[in-house]
Design goal:
Layout lengths: L4 H21 L7 H6 L1 H31 L6 H27 L7
Length: 110
């Protein structure tokens, strides 16, 4: 079975992020606090850009989740089988109730 493109893409993104984290932890590359504080305009721009990208990403994730929840879809085979079984149980219950009513003696006036 071949994985879909989405699974391959997200696996690659996660692998890259893990490699970046390992590189940061092992001090393969570091960005000192002095470099960040030396150019406050770049720092503000970076924070602003990250905020915009996070909001756009959250918007797209929200749209995707809302679409998946609200889109009409057909029942799965399991759900179809469960609905059919529910109908059969309902029919059997009615048959049993009619049999019980026929078995009980009808009492007349005393």
């Amino acid at each position: 079975m071949r994985p879909s493109r989405a699974i391959t893409f997200w696996s690659l993104v996660i692998a890259i992020l893990v490699l970046l984290e390992v590189a940061e932890v092992t001090h393969l590359f570091t960005l000192g606090i002095v470099a960040v504080l030396s150019d406050p305009l770049a720092f503000i721009f970076a924070i602003f850009l990250i905020t915009i990208l996070a909001l756009v990403g959250a918007l797209f994730v929200g749209i995707y989740v809302a679409h998946r929840i609200l889109s009409p879809g057909s029942f799965t085979p399991f759900e179809t089988e469960m609905l059919k079984m529910r109908g059969e149980i309902h029919d059997l219950t009615k048959k049993v109730e009619t049999l019980v009513e026929q078995e009980q003696p009808k009492e007349g006036p005393k």
